[in-house]
Recover the amino acids of this structure.
């Protein structure tokens, strides 16, 4: 078993020069570029938001707590991503020892579980902000009042179910990250990923459309309406 763990995680394709064993590649540098962009930009905006709320408005609400919490979840995913990089993420599989490949799959497995709560917190914070701006009371904007709440419930249910399915996708559970386990039974992970991607796209579009309806009813020039909608779209990104 120990000898098997030292073998390449995949047979080298014909005509390809193997660099086995290694856990490093030039492509891994892009991870640090993405990490910098996904922490510095939202981190700066989050600090500006908190400064405004604490020093100027002198009041925070649930959206602020959810935003801060989701940022900490983002940091957790970044740390887990760094652990994946350390085990060889971004390296051709045939250059990677199988024991590193197994540990990389384990950290990816954890990331998939953490992803659900993270994205749910982000979307809930956005929708609660919509409610505070456009529908503080049901009578002001019934469509927004009901729609935002429905989306929060639907996304909460979906990401909870998705996280549990990911956790227990294989029997035994270790087979989720260890391909050497014989006789394991697993759900189709590619199908689960496609379903989640489709749900994310649909829910993102729904969240984007919600404020557009309210903004379009404002008595302001069309150019300003478009600008406000684009501003909300940028925030969603």
């Amino acid at each position: 078993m120990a000898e098997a763990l030292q073998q390449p995680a995949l047979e080298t394709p014909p005509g390809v020069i193997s660099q086995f064993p290694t856990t490093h590649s030039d492509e891994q540098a892009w991870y640090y570029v993405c990490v910098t962009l996904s922490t510095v930009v939202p981190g700066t905006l989050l600090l500006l938001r908190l400064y405004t709320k604490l020093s100027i408005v002198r009041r925070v609400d649930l959206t602020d707590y959810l935003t801060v919490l989701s940022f900490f979840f983002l940091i957790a995913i970044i740390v887990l991503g760094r652990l994946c990089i350390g085990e060889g993420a971004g390296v051709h599989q045939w250059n990677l020892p199988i024991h590193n490949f197994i540990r990389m799959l384990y950290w990816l497995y954890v990331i998939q579980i953490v992803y659900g709560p993270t994205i749910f917190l982000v979307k809930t914070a956005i929708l609660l902000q919509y409610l505070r701006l456009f529908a503080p009371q049901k009578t002001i904007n019934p469509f927004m009042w009901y729609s935002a709440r429905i989306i929060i419930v639907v996304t909460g249910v979906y990401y909870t179910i998705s996280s549990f399915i990911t956790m227990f996708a294989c029997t035994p559970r270790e087979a989720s990250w260890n391909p050497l386990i014989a006789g394991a039974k697993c759900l189709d992970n590619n199908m689960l990923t496609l379903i989640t991607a489709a749900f994310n796209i649909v829910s993102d579009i729904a969240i984007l459309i919600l404020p557009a309806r309210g903004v379009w009813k404002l008595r302001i020039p069309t150019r300003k309406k478009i600008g406000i909608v684009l501003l909300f779209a940028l925030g969603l990104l």
Observations:
- Residues 216 and 225 are 6 Å apart (CA to CA).
- Residues 98-134 form the longest helix (37 residues).
- The chain has a mean pLDDT of 88.
- The longest strand covers residues 170-171.
